[in-house]
Amino acid sequence: MCLDPSVIVKFKPEVTDDIKEGAIKDILALKNTIPQITDISAGKNFTDRGKGYEYGWVIEIEKKEDLPVYANHQSHLDFLAKYKPTFEDVLAFDYEF
Fold first, then answer.
1. Separation CA 5–CA 40 (nearest Å)
2. 95 closest CA partner among 18, 33, 7
3. Which part of the chain is the Stress-response A/B barrel domain (predicted)?
4. 16 in the Ramachandran plot: left (φ > 0), alpha (ψ -120 to 50) or beta?
5. How does pLDDT run across 45-90, given as a tens digit for each residue?
């Protein structure tokens, strides 16, 4: 069984494309610093179905017990400190498969 913490975000209107792309680059880099991450994908929505949510990512970890380890890892906390102020809204969804 695996767990997929998934996130979609709306950036604040004044946030530049460079910052948005930096967030994607930085979220993908978490796989290099957080051992519990087994896979990660991220990208920009390309349809009109996103209701204003522009970017999203899915992080794969092996078990529920790894979720707080990932969430409280310093690399993840650094990512949040850098980018959370640029988010207008965030939707997180965690599921097992």
1. 10
2. 7
3. 3-95
4. beta
5. 999 999 999 999 999 999 999 999 999 999 999 999 999 999 999 9
Distance CA 5, CA 37 (A): 10
- Return the bridge partners of 96, or none: 3
Cα dihedral 82, 37, 45, 88 sign: negative
Size of the chain in residues? 97
Q: What percent of the chain has pLDDT over 70?
A: 100
Report in angstroms the alpha-carbon separations of 36 from 13, 51, 58, 87. Answer: 33, 31, 14, 25
